[in-house]
């Protein structure tokens, strides 16, 4: 059994925030929780971890640029493959993530070509629909990780199954969960820009 877990940071953070959670620290425990479920069902299996996010331009926000760079380096040290897009800055200074959905969609398809049996996506973004369908045509099963509060009707209709985010959170030791009342987490590298 070969599997991969793909996390769309902005979509994932939105779902966490809806549950009153600022995030998971370190992220590796989130991936390990899902990995443990796979091991329980299928025995020893090969699972790769993937994280998709963006870095703001250095000339726009130097501190945030360096925080994000350190954050992604920490993920890589935990054997999480990091795939970065970029941020477009509007005239009013608002940042928009670009290229992340495309990278995730392309990887879904590439991983299906590489004979991955099971692909988990932590995203409810309907833009991933065509990539999900193509991965399924190549023989991969695609499972979404979605909060029970997340509508994501199209994704739910397309995927082969849904794992409730709340069930994954229940597998994680409470010491690794940062609640929204603690803003320290966002100062360490998490982004709060808009997904376009």
TrEMBL record:
<protein>
    <submittedName>
        <fullName>Uncharacterized LabA/DUF88 family protein</fullName>
    </submittedName>
</protein>
<dbReference type="InterPro" id="IPR021139">
    <property type="entry name" value="NYN"/>
</dbReference>
<dbReference type="Pfam" id="PF01936">
    <property type="entry name" value="NYN"/>
</dbReference>
<feature type="domain" description="NYN">
    <location>
        <begin position="17"/>
        <end position="162"/>
    </location>
</feature>
């Amino acid at each position: 059994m070969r599997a991969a877990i793909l996390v769309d940071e902005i979509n994932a953070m939105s779902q966490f925030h809806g549950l009153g959670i600022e995030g998971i620290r370190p992220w590796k425990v989130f991936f390990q929780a899902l990995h443990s479920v796979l091991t329980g069902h299928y025995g020893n299996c090969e699972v790769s971890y993937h994280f998709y996010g963006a870095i703001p331009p250095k000339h726009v926000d130097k501190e945030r640029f360096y925080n994000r760079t350190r954050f992604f380096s920490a993920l890589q040290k935990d054997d999480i493959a990091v795939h970065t897009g970029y941020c477009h800055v509007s005239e009013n200074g608002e940042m928009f993530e670009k290229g992340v959905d495309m990278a995730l969609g392309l990887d879904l398809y590439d991983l299906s070509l590489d004979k991955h049996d099971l692909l988990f996506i932590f995203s409810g973004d309907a833009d991933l629909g065509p990539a999900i369908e193509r991965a399924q045509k190549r023989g991969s099963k695609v499972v979404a990780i979605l909060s029970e509060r997340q509508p994501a009707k199209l994704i739910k209709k397309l995927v082969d199954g849904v794992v409730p985010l709340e069930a994954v959170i229940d597998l994680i030791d409470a010491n690794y969960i940062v609640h929204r009342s603690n803003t320290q987490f966002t100062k360490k590298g998490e982004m709060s820009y808009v997904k376009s």
